[in-house]
Design a protein that fits this description.
The chain is mainly beta. 5% of the residues lie in helices and 50% in strands. It contains seven helices and 46 strands. Belongs to the TonB-dependent receptor family.
């Protein structure tokens, strides 16, 4: 693989928020001006007791969160910074039932809401939580790792968003809305954050008005820190190698606003994100006594070089007060190279190196929307959507195994363990080469609302999506076979195992290993490729029905029935699945009480899934399949209480029950523990009633802030506590303990604590803050996999070794930012 260049440019320009307001006590930005009646009502409130609101676009209209009839949470840039949020993963505890898993071999993440998500972060899968930046869909899960900076706000809608957002939004949708250029005045801001693990973040923003009609906004960020996973003795790494968990990210965005006429305006954005960190790696899910959790025996250093370049354009034309047209177009290119230690040294003497030699994902989208006046009794919105994506990727796996005698000799000598098999030892490989995998999607949608009375509004909507997924000439190479690992103590080898032996006279140290960028032929591989050619066409209609009841000016009740679907998957060998479908029933309550001192939002939901999509590694191969169904029900609460002008108590809570319905499946872990194999000797078991992954019965986050007047300014200590009951985090749909590994696939109930102390002068010209994240250094398992099965380690037939991804350890730091 080509060496990974390191970006050394420091960006010192950063963001300032314009016309910022606070929602839900923790703050949300007002992206549009409120109407005269609303503004007058807020002005009548005492300034210290006001809790201003954010405008979101989840309904394809500009509506305040408290007037939006669905479960949506929003935060502005100031709130994100005050909570040390820089990406979606660090936002998780602030949003009810949101979980983000980190992963290693593709630079991506798995996003779950209400226990629903997708565990497939490869080109073979699609996320179940739709991710948008400025309304533009980001199809790859790596997009959710993008840095959050210079935003107007982020909005997170929970539950299916199939009518307005379409496919792959069965669990919810996230939209990052960047701050817009302003023609009002020249302004800017800059900030710097420093912390342990040599954390350094610089960011800045400049807003330049050229005239009353044209303005340019430029924002940039640079964020870097050392890794958190120490190299254990015997690791085969060069001095100075970056540890796993190290980050090196940057982003830059240029936005141009042009008011062509009073009726026509355009916004044009160029957005670039670069990540050159080290990625993540499995840690021992069952560490041995005295073994440091955040450490690993590494023979493949983590390298990552991924970038996302996006060009976006938005045109808004308003010919009359009652009619509005919007066009949104985009082109994006995502590229990646990376390498990862897939076995993480959990079986010394065995090496599994995962490499993306090259990957390029090009996509473009067009969306045309037409809508009526926001204040009319009868409202409508309609649109056309077109999306295309073309994927090209080469992903290789090299596996090697040396004798245990050589391993023990290295350990005894205190030397580095070199997993370089010689004659008579084992080497094999696999290569996935997808040169032309495409998706062509188009949709038409519409939604109408009628204000029946001053209190009652009815809404109905529908969408039809037509998709075409296909793979032309994709190949899987198994060199020479897969899987055919050779457990320790094996004396009689099968033909497949014999074929893996390094043979003399080949001129290669590792006969069948491919190596970075290596050529593959039938002769060098010892096998012929499998064909991934596939062609899948399908159409799906989704719909919505909703009723709103305005009990009082400050209390909104609503009920809805919505549907959604998740695209069927194309798998290895051209295998396909059915689409995942669901129907969701929801009742909501939104309120601003006690003269707006208390905001309380409640949402009860019941979601019924059919043909739920699942992904799991079976016999060292990632498989996509449909579960018969699942039922998810629960209650979410969000609140902010300001009992005085200087006290704020905010938080959220979720009560959740997410279980699979009756369907027969094979328990991969139990099968291995019993010396069986799924698909041959292991029985099928009904998993109906099993709890889904990332679905704790109860979780909550509570945050308290108090303002002290000191030194002509305001000093604000903050404490944020997050608590969850036990949840299942292992792969598969089975909740039972694995024989000999009790609790390994569970994350027991836990509590984390974040602390900060913030100072602002009276004019709020700058902010100084000190913070501690995960103050008690609690290790929380986010994902667990059985590595013997996952990467084909040479384990005994009933032996199991579990690896896990964990949350970040305790970190601390300080931030200084200013506006001008």
């Amino acid at each position: 693989m080509k060496p990974f260049k390191r970006n050394t440019i420091a960006f010192s320009l950063a963001h300032a928020t314009f016309a910022q307001f606070i929602l839900m006590g923790s703050g949300a930005a007002l992206a549009q001006q409120a109407g005269p009646a609303t503004a007058a009502a807020e002005t009548a409130q005492p300034a210290a007791e006001q809790m201003d609101r954010i405008v979101v676009t989840a309904t394809r209209r500009n509506t305040f969160v408290q007037e939006t009839p669905l479960a949506v949470t929003a935060f502005n840039q100031d709130t994100l910074q005050n909570n040390q949020v820089k990406d979606l993963a660090s936002l998780a505890t602030m949003v009810p039932s949101l979980v983000v898993e980190q992963h290693g071999d593709s630079g991506g993440v798995h996003v779950y809401m209400r226990g629903v998500g997708s565990a497939n972060h490869t080109e073979l899968g699609d996320p179940a939580v739709a991710f948008y930046v400025d309304g533009v869909y980001s199809p790859r899960p790596q997009g959710a790792t993008a840095l959050m900076y210079d935003l107007s706000h982020v909005e997170v809608a929970r539950g299916p968003q199939g009518t307005l957002n379409g496919r792959n939004s069965t669990a919810g949708a996230v939209n990052l809305v960047s701050a817009a250029p302003s023609t009002a005045k020249f302004m800017g801001s800059a900030g710097i954050t420093v912390g342990d693990y040599r954390h350094l973040q610089t960011q800045g923003m400049l807003n330049i008005p050229f005239s009353d009609d044209v303005a340019l906004r430029i924002a940039a960020i640079k964020d870097s820190h050392d890794g958190t996973v120490d190299f254990r003795r015997g690791s085969n790494v060069m001095p100075g190698t970056a540890k796993y968990g190290a980050g090196d990210q940057m982003g830059v965005r240029a936005s141009l606003l042009w008011k062509f006429t009073p009726q026509l305006r355009g916004t044009f954005i160029a957005d670039y994100f670069l990540d050159q960190g080290a990625g993540n790696v499995y840690l021992a899910a069952e560490p041995k006594p005295g073994e440091k959790l955040r450490s690993a025996l590494i023979d493949t250093p983590g390298t990552l070089d991924q970038s996302i370049l996006t060009y976006k354009g938005k045109l808004n034309y308003k010919p009359t007060d009652g009619l509005d047209f919007t066009y949104l177009g985009s082109w994006s290119r995502y590229k990646r190279q990376n390498s990862n230690d897939a076995d993480a040294g959990l079986f010394p003497g065995f090496k599994s190196e995962n490499r993306t030699d090259w990957a390029q994902f090009d996509s473009y989208s067009h969306e045309l929307q037409a809508r009526s006046d926001d204040d009319a009794p009868f409202q409508w919105v309609a649109g056309l959507f077109l999306f295309n994506e073309k994927n090209k990727v080469r992903f290789d796996i090299d596996r090697s195994q040396i004798s245990q005698a050589a391993v023990q000799q290295d350990i005894a000598n205190g030397a580095v363990i070199f997993v370089q098999p010689t004659v008579g030892q084992y080497a094999s490989a696999m290569s996935f080469i997808q040169g032309d995998r495409q998706l062509k999607s188009k949709a038409v949608f519409g939604q109408v609302s009628q204000q029946v009375t001053d209190q009652i509004k009815l809404t109905a909507g529908a969408r039809y999506t037509k998709d075409h997924k296909f793979d032309i000439g994709g190949k899987n190479w198994a060199c020479p076979n897969w899987p055919a690992n050779t457990p320790l103590g094996t004396t009689v080898l099968t033909p497949d195992q014999l074929a893996q032996l390094v043979t003399p006279g080949t001129g290669l140290a590792n006969t069948h290993n491919i190596g970075p960028g290596g050529a593959i032929t039938a002769a060098s591989c010892g096998n012929t490729p499998g064909d991934n050619t596939a062609d899948l066409k399908y159409g799906q209609a989704t719909w919505l029905g909703r009723i709103e009841y305005k009990l009082r000016s400050d209390i909104l009740l609503f009920g809805s029935v919505t549907t959604g679907f998740h695209s069927p998957a194309i798998g290895d060998g051209g295998a396909t699945t059915k689409p995942e479908k669901l129907t969701s029933y929801e009742i909501g309550f939104k309120s601003d009480l006690l003269n707006r001192q208390l905001t309380l939002n409640l949402d009860a939901f019941l979601m019924k899934y059919k043909d739920k999509l699942e992904s799991q590694v079976v016999n060292s191969v990632l498989a996509n399949f449909n579960a018969a169904g699942a039922t998810v029900k629960g209650l979410e609460a969000e609140w902010v209480w300001r009992p005085t002008s200087v006290d704020r108590l905010t938080g959220n809570a979720t009560w959740l029950k997410a279980v699979y319905d009756d369907f027969l499946s094979c328990d991969v872990d139990a099968a291995r523990a019993n010396g069986q194999s799924c698909g041959s000797t292991a029985p099928l078991v009904n998993v109906g009633g099993s709890t889904m992954k990332h679905a704790p019965k109860f979780s909550t986050t509570v945050q308290y802030e108090h303002d002290f007047t000191v030194a002509g300014g305001q000093l604000t200590p903050r404490a944020s506590v997050h608590y969850e009951t036990m949840s299942y985090v292992g792969a598969g749909a089975f909740n039972g303990d694995v024989p000999g590994h009790a609790g390994v696939k569970r994350q027991e109930a836990y509590t984390t604590l974040d602390l900060s102390l913030r100072f602002q002068p009276a004019n709020k010209a700058y902010t100084v803050e000190a913070f501690v994240q995960n103050a008690t250094d609690k290790a929380v398992k986010l994902d667990v996999n059985e590595i013997c099965t996952d990467v084909g380690m040479p384990c005994q037939p009933t032996q199991q070794i579990y690896g896990a991804f964990y949350n970040a350890p305790r970190t601390f730091g300080a931030r200084v930012s200013m506006k001008f």
